[in-house]
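Input set for joint prediction.
Command: fold jointly, output tokens.
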Amino acid sequence: MTAKAAVPELGPLEYQLLRILWKSAPATAREVLEGYNRKAPKKLKYTTIMTLLTRMVEKRVLEVDRRRQPFQFEPRVTREQMQRDRVNEFVNLFFEGRAVDLAVRLVEETPLSPEAVRRLEASLERHKTTSGTRQKRGAGQ
Amino acid sequence: MTAKAAVPELGPLEYQLLRILWKSAPATAREVLEGYNRKAPKKLKYTTIMTLLTRMVEKRVLEVDRRRQPFQFEPRVTREQMQRDRVNEFVNLFFEGRAVDLAVRLVEETPLSPEAVRRLEASLERHKTTSGTRQKRGAGQ
DNA sequence: GACATTCGTCTACAAGCGTAGTAATTTTTC
DNA sequence: GAAAAATTACTACGCTTGTAGACGAATGTC
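tokens >
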């Protein structure tokens, strides 16, 4: 079990593009560009996106199908993998590795709808009945 | 209410140094260096730290007292401000702004001690009885 | 007070990222 | 099939970050 090659860190813009790709399965550079420009205030040029996408392919975070014209790009990492890795880093960097501290802060500092509160409670319930079986290594604070 | 000049984004190493400074109030470059090298695998040189600290002063994230020899460095932002800003960005970037999603994930994917679970539950309780009074702007999802 | 050590400033440089222009290639459209 | 449009490849450049050397200024030590 060797934590299969953690997802590399990317630049903010690269994450944006990944987001777009997670949403629209395989997409062309043009589609990604449009997806991006539709929302973002700062419009980018086609070639900018191409450059980014190409680099991301080199980093093996995307996959490209060159047989098809225009090329189709597609993520090679799932949103979940990415989230897992980033959340870990984040908790380590800003909360000394104490995930609860972050969780508490989320509850206290962000506007949670009642619905959201219920979801979290349910999740906590589930955790309590399941835990003990799945403790990982590392100081569970 | 103009969100008082959000804390700028820093590089990973810069965050590390901030962490050290949050812990040991005003400290000299040497102290920061030692604090860093004591833990980190990759040892750094004195001048590297000085460069970083100086840049952080320029970014106004640190303050330096030059009257005292060796100079004393000190954060100008609190851990809490920093965390707030970073958590927001993070939630936006990886969870489409849905803080609950991150919270749920924390509960489900990290090893929480029973103590931690209690803390979270307490926090949720507090939230439920307090909420309504303190809703912030922004889509409370 | 001469020598050693520590500190601070300045300069440098490679890698990564955002940004895009230009040139070459491919596809589309008359 | 020639001209126009879209796509892809290659190159470049400025900024930031991590990394540190050189060198002069301040301080500490006999």
